[in-house]
Amino acid sequence: MMFDDFQFSSILVSTIRNAPVLMFAAMAGLFAERSGVVDLALEGKMLAAAFVSAAVAFATKNPWLGILAGIGISVAIALLQGFVSITQKGNQLVAGIAINITLSGLTFVIAQYLFQQGGRTPDLGDARLFDIVFPGAEAVAGIPFLGWVYTKLIGGHSALVYLAFALIPVVHWVLYHTSFGLRLRAVGENPHAADAAGINVERTRFMAMLCAGVLCSFSGAYLSIVQSGFFLRDMSAGNGYLALTALVFGNWRPLHTALGCLMFGFFAALQVQIEGVVFPGIGKVPGSLIQMIPYVVTVIVLAGLMAKSVAPKAIGQPFVKSR
């Protein structure tokens, strides 16, 4: 493919399609970390939800039942993580890494046992989540620019894509304009002061983990039921860690975090688009260098923003009630 064939419009559409994986996981991490719990287990919850969603969708031929099953397993893991980190005061980093490693192997073993296809599920076919076609899409498809915006940039995506973008104002409202959001931020900043004010710190943190489990399940379901159409070992491919990076980029605020997810989605789309492109005076860029793009961006973001980002003050600190 020559440089002249480079399609910026395709990159924008791919960005919209790539971002929900990170958005769901980042919003999940936002709830957990705003309450004071480091959520390194995003990757593991995504993998578990991706596998269970794909397996149930394949068995029932119903993607919505797959999504519900994914919510169930992700919430169960989040509550287990909460039991270790909140109730038992365990090391939150170790608990998260342990969950990730366990589920990386466990999902592969169970998939191999059930389906005998090298640790993946069969293709979902009609059990994949369909794209939504807006009314009048065919009528405006031929109109320059407007037709592309209406049918491809805004329209033509699955329900989970629209849910991901709708979550941004909802999460902002919950976090900053509800009593639950006030309690959540209070226990993440100063749990002892929150406890003195009558807030149940452990219950608030468990509620945050419940929200994180639900939201992270959508990320896993999106990977298997929308993007791929099957489950494959380690298909999350580090997206859980990229979501945490987006949290740092967004300074633990919903809108800025979503912009960070869009940025990573853009570079992931750019990586696919420029693969095989012949650049004038340069030629083809090696595929291995192209695959490095999202991770190089991650390092740059972390190096440039870690000093400027202000995390919740009590993040990673187990709460021990004063007597």
Automatic annotation (TrEMBL):
Name used for this protein in its record: ABC transporter permease
Annotated compartments: Cell membrane
Keyword entries, A-Z: Cell membrane, Membrane, Transmembrane, Transmembrane helix
Bilayer topology annotation: Multi-pass membrane protein
Entry keyword Cell membrane: yes
Main location: membrane
Organism: Undibacterium hunanense
PANTHER family from the UniProt entry: GUANOSINE ABC TRANSPORTER PERMEASE PROTEIN NUPQ, SUGAR ABC TRANSPORTER INTEGRAL MEMBRANE PROTEIN-RELATED
InterPro entries: ABC_transp_permease
Signal peptide start and end residues: none
Highest taxon in the source lineage: Bacteria
Membrane spanning residue stretches: 6-28, 40-58, 64-86, 93-115, 154-175, 206-225, 261-282, 288-307
